[in-house]
């Protein structure tokens, strides 16, 4: 089982002279499994009250491939790395060894992509939990959060969609079985010897109950906004290497058309459409105005 709880116990014995056999077998199996996942990120999703890998492990997303505004990536990475080095500090002070991050901002700005790339960078896996899921109850949530597989980031996406000011939303005719206080209890109650890193994302931070944003639940908030001129430039040069002049023209065109809100996902769409044709991407800038 992925959460380490024994399901069934089988006892195997060997002769004394072969006593290292099982250890060798297990070491070999572990090495094969680790090799198979090398350079990959395992995505776990909840299955009842346990975590199961969702599909095959995915190739790590390179952290360089996600372009956030200047300094944001390093700010988060430094914070996470400092947290990961501080186990003893927390332990000595009797503080639960956990840290919560909230990435908020408009759709398509790279929140999820960044968290995936960060997991790859740290050589961690990801546990994704959808709080709006029909059959998730407070008990299951609590169990899941206390049994996160080793070296995994917990990702709670679109946190505002599950709760809205302490009353559950019931859009599309169903409502989550998790209560807001159930989530708070689960976040507070994570009692793990291992570190627990939770990432939450939302497009609507204003809808979040302040109780969720309290330190200990969310310790680090960061806005991941629409593309800044710096990001537009970096995105352009990522798709069209060395095309600095055309990049200038692209930025100029955006200014002329007074386009103030473009998501990095929209930019990606435009550049993928014009894979080898930066000049055409410049011609098509106006379409960004209407592709929100
Ligand atoms: N900053 C970025 N750098 C590189 N690629 C990006 C960036 N932002 C978005 N993308 C691309 O756009 C797509 C959507 O991005 P992603 O899902 O990470 O956005 P999001 O902010 O999590 O959106 P939502 O709030 O709707 O969940 C992905 O294919 C991703 O590669």
TrEMBL record:
One of the GO biological process terms: chaperone-mediated protein complex assembly
Keyword Hydrolase applies: yes
Mode of membrane association: Single-pass membrane protein
Segments forming domain BCS1 N-terminal: 1-66
Gene3D superfamilies per the UniProt record, alphabetical: P-loop containing nucleotide triphosphate hydrolases
Keyword Lipoprotein: no
One GO MF term: ATPase-coupled transmembrane transporter activity
Reactions catalysed, as given in the entry: ATP + H2O = ADP + phosphate + H(+)
Chief place where the protein resides: mitochondrion
Pfam families registered for this protein in UniProt: AAA (PF00004), AAA_lid_BCS1 (PF25426), BCS1_N (PF08740)
Residues of the AAA+ ATPase domain: 97-228
InterPro entries documented for this protein: AAA+_ATPase (IPR003593), AAA_lid_BCS1 (IPR057495), ATPase_AAA_core (IPR003959), BCS1_N (IPR014851), Mitochondrial_chaperone_BCS1 (IPR050747), P-loop_NTPase (IPR027417)
GO CC terms in record: mitochondrial inner membrane
Keywords: ATP-binding, Hydrolase, Membrane, Mitochondrion, Mitochondrion inner membrane, Nucleotide-binding, Transmembrane, Transmembrane helix
Subcellular location(s) per record: Mitochondrion inner membrane
Family per similarity comment: Belongs to the AAA ATPase family. BCS1 subfamily.
Protein name as annotated: p-loop containing nucleoside triphosphate hydrolase protein
Organism: Ascoidea rubescens DSM 1968
